[in-house]
Amino acid sequence: MEAHGVGLRRVLVLAFCVAGIWSAYIYQGFLQETLSTKRFGADGKRFEHLSFLNLAQNVVCLIWSYIMIKLWSSGSNGGAPWWTYWSAGITNTIGPAMGIEALKYISYPAQVLAKSSKFMLMGSLVYGIRYTFPEYLCTLLVAGGVSIFALLKTSSKTISKLAHPNAPLGYGLCFLNLAFDGFTNATQDSISARYPKTSAWDIMLGMNLWGTIYNMVYMFGWPQASGFEAIQFCKQHPEAAWDIFLYCLCGAVGQNFIFLTISRFGSLANTTITTTRKFVSIVVSSLLSGNPLSTKQWGCVVMVFSGLSYQIYLKWKKLQRLQKKRKPM
């Protein structure tokens, strides 16, 4: 009976994590697409300074992580010093900025699909990781789906919503974003290995501290910097400022649920939840934001997520084998 109760609690916590990640990031994606395509006010102006979203999110997540550390941390725990994040902070500032800027040139579904190829393509092309045949099959499905989707003609309705339609530039920015993300992740892993007592909140605080510093310099470092124009736009269009605040809040809340999922259920469960979330984000974008996809484009979406799903299954099988080996005979 006790085991049943523990199992039920575990299922409820998992359901809570899924609901939290899905709701936070699907709504954040909707807001991101709104801010990149909507014309605000009577003058019909677009919010052109999308990089400002990164600065705003850095600030909100910095404050959020500081509060969480003060509430839940028992003081100095031997974690990584704040200055160790300076190099990861650079790539974590440039990479997401490129990903957001890509929305000026390609649709939100195209951006999500391109960024979904991160783990397989970056591991194979950038880091030279050798995979098994089934894993290469996953890579082929993901790469093929993204490539065919990029080559297919986008609907005129979707193109009309973009600020500056340019597919090669948009996809190029997405893949540069993935490359920078790869360096960021590798640096974070290195910091965690050197300072094992570093908590997820410590990492979040350090990364967003440096991200705030770098973005502040970029956005407000000189009199004609774009940050001043972004602030002025928000003053003239309060609805845009509200969308930006909600966008940042979703990012901070989503990070909480990701940390909870990894700590309770492991990185594989988190990968599964976030992968399915991306698929749902494309569906939501197609249905609610007026980005219709053709039958062939939906086929490409299915190709990509079939590859990602098979990759998750292979990881699960590998994890099962490792757990069997560790069990005492």
Supply the key terms.
329 residues; mainly alpha; two-stranded antiparallel sheet; globular; 13 helices; single chain
Which helices and strands, and how do they pair?
Elements: H1 2-37, E1 39-40, E2 45-46, H2 52-72, H3 86-101, H4 108-115, H5 118-126, H6 133-151, H7 156-161, H8 167-194, H9 200-220, H10 226-236, H11 238-265, H12 267-288, H13 295-326
Antiparallel strand pairs: 1-2
Helix pairs in contact: 1-11, 1-12, 2-9, 2-11, 3-8, 3-9, 4-8, 4-12, 5-8, 6-13, 10-11, 11-12, 12-13
Task: Give structural notes.
- The chain has 329 residues and is mostly helical.
- 78% of the residues lie in helices and 1% in strands.
- It has 13 helices and two strands.
- It has a two-stranded antiparallel ribbon.
- The chain is globular, with a radius of gyration of 21 Å.
Number of strands: 2
What share of residues are in beta strands? under 5%
- The backbone outline, from C-alpha atoms, is globular
Please summarize the sheet with the most strands. Answer: 2 strands, antiparallel
Q: From the alpha carbons, calculate the radius of gyration and give it in angstroms.
A: 21 Å
How many H/I helical runs? 13
Structural class: mainly alpha
Written as H for each helix and E for each strand, in order along the chain, the element string is HEEHHHHHHHHHHHH
Report the end-to-end length measured between terminal Cα atoms: 28 Å
Residue runs with pLDDT of under 50 for 5 or more positions:
none
What is the average of the pLDDT values? Answer: 83
Estimated helix fraction: over 70%
Spatial arrangement of strands, main beta sheet: 1-2
